[in-house]
Amino acid sequence: MANLPKVDAVIVGGGAAGCMIAAKLSQRGKKIIILEQGPDWQAKDLISSQIWSRRLKWAGSVVQLAGKNPIAHNFNTGWGTGGAALHHYANWPRMHAEDFDTKSRYGVGLDWPISYDDLRPYYDKVQHEVGISGDAKAEVWRPPGAPYPMPPLKIFRQGEVLAKGFAAIGLRTAPMPVAINSVARNGRPACINDGWCDAGCPTGALANPLMTYLPQARKAGTEVRPFSYVTRILTDANGGRVTGVEYYDQKKEKQFQPAALVVLAANAVQNPRIMLNSATDKHPNGLANSSGLVGRYFMAHFGARVSALFDEDLENHMGISGNQLMCQEHYVKDSHKGPIGSYTWQICSAVKPNDLTGIANSRADLFGDALHAFYKRAVRGLTSMQALGEQLPDADNRVVLGDVKDEFGFPVAKVEHSADDNVLKLTQFCFEQGETVLKAAGAKEIWRAPNLGWIHVMGGTLMGRSEKDSVCNSYGQSHDVQNLILAGTGLNPTEGGVHPTFTTQALALRTTEHLNAHWGGIAA
Fold first, then answer.
1. Residue 257's beta-bridge partner residues?
2. Is the pTM of this model over 0.85?
């Protein structure tokens, strides 16, 4: 094991949060190292192909899946620099004020230790730095904030058709706010609307970390160490401070990187795995786990997808992997005649041959001549939309250590996830509303996805006001270990009904400003 020199901070994970934190700390003169389990992707590695895009999905150690409604871990996480944000769809709505005080307001879920107003300035800063295309005025449901720096992307025929369906039943739509350039900005070109966003966007129009904060971090001196598999965070003799990170390098050799500060910015499954595997006599239940909450309150969004065929050319191959339009008319959590929770309609993705938004698996119930006939119509007439909905936090949904060990002898992560009656009732409400919209739009055939999708991974290292009810404070600083910082979607006490990446980067920016202002009192 090499005797590596101590650095200011080691960041575990080179995704949306890790790259931003690295950039902001290194720009203030800090020596930063990013340990990334996967490859160090470069912009030239991105190829407009669904086959090649699969390289960007999880390819690390096995993750055990359990519960009544297992998640799709590999699809929801990333592999290599950029993390899941390298293949994300770049839908970037803001969370609403009610998402931060669900317990106080509705008597269910949990409260955040901060409000929307606390996070609002960071939403505004991130959208200026990264660039978002949208129409804030058309988003009549949008919480207060600065207008978007770019106009919305183009709406194609399928968007026009479905917008009429929503309007016919009294629901408003607006352009989906996306972290994709509608015009050339900050050295990146405008979107060409060819729909290869989940391949990483080879043109650079989409704001993935390879195009935004990672180049800034590298320019300021951050070192990226790819193929670094982190096993444990080590602490001093008293267990009061972390001293660095143990990992195995590309040659499968164990290394220890000492640091004044450790930032765990892996995904919401891997952060708890590392913390639970870092147990010592001072931290018998896992690192920084005096609350017993490390791994608990794991969440995912549900995806209630409805599809349809129209007898016209919808230009459905054009657009983005994300969505042309959105609707949040029923975002208010108690507006669904029973179930509690928010949701956003994601309307119209670019239709490709395969994978999530593709033609090939959209009618798994058809075979032979019937399937062939469907394909001929679907090439021009297929469209779909999906309600992205909220699962309320449940302590029994959690990440634990599994009974399988990795190649180095450490237990892998096991995710136990089930849906309760509340979320299942909310999905039924969404399915029925979606079918009503498509019928009003004039669809000739309408059907539901055969399986309920579980999208995004959140929770497991919750922020809160004290060590009794959470793992860290609102800046991601561990309650138990002062120089351990947590970042990413794992911090979220609730998930709302919107995509998490924008909120993750807003939180990461808030954390870095706090670290830079109080470095001497936090870092060892």
1. 245
2. yes
Cα angle at 190 between 187 and 192, to 5 degrees?
A: 140
* SS3 category, 136: coil
Q: What are the average pLDDT values for consecutive 10-residue runs of the chain, which has 524 residues?
A: 88 98 98 98 91 91 96 93 96 98 98 98 98 98 98 97 98 98 97 92 96 98 98 96 98 97 98 98 97 98 96 95 97 94 97 83 89 92 97 98 97 98 97 98 94 93 96 98 98 98 98 97 91
How far is it, in rounded angstroms, from Cα 54 to Cα 50? 7
pLDDT value for 430 = 97
CA distance 25 to 512: 7
Q: Kindly state the tokens that stand for 289.
A: 């786990």
Write phi, then psi, for 414 (nearest 5 degrees): -125, 125
What string of H, E and C letters represents the secondary structure of 353-415? CCCCCECCCCCCCCCHHHHHHHHHHHHHHEEEEEEEECCCCCCCCEEEEEEEECCCCCEEEEE
Q: Which two tokens stand for residue 455?
A: 């999208």
Residue 116 DSSP class: H
Task: Please report, in angstroms and rounded to a whole number, the separation of the first and last CA atoms in the chain.
Answer: 23
Q: Which residue is it, tokens 């180049």?
A: 215
Structure token digits, residue 165 = 């369906």
Q: What pLDDT score does 449 carry?
A: 86
Query: Rounded to 10 degrees, what is the CA torsion of 75, 80, 83, 85?
Result: -90
Q: Which two tokens stand for residue 349?
A: 């993705």
Q: How far is CA 451 from CA 223, 246, 304, 363, 433, in A?
A: 42, 40, 9, 12, 17
Cα(191)–Cα(99) distance, integer angstroms? 31
Give the integer Cα–Cα distance in Å for 130 and 138: 21
Give the integer Cα–Cα distance in Å for 447 and 216.
46
Please name each of the domains of the chain with its CATH number: 7-522 (3.50.50.60)
- φ, ψ (nearest 5 deg) of residue 155: -100, 125
pLDDT at residue 524 in the model: 78
H or E element that contains 486 = strand 484-486
Instruction: Name the residue among 268, 285, 344 with its Cα closest to residue 467.
Output: 285
Q: Where are the beta strands (DSSP E) in 274-316?
A: 299-309
Q: Where are the beta strands (DSSP E) in 288-342?
A: 299-309, 325-327
Residues 453, 72 contacting (CB under 8 angstroms): yes
Q: What phi and psi, each to the nearest 5 degrees, are found at residue 445?
A: -140, 140
Ramachandran quadrant class, 45 (left: phi over 0; alpha: psi -120 to 50; beta: rest): alpha
DSSP secondary structure code for residue 259 in this structure: E
Would strands 7-12 and 32-35 be described as parallel, antiparallel, or unpaired? parallel
How big is the CA angle at 13 (ends 8 and 17), to the nearest 5 degrees?
85
Rounded Cα–Cα distance for residues 372 and 388 (Å): 30
CB atoms inside a 10 Å sphere around CB 428 = 14
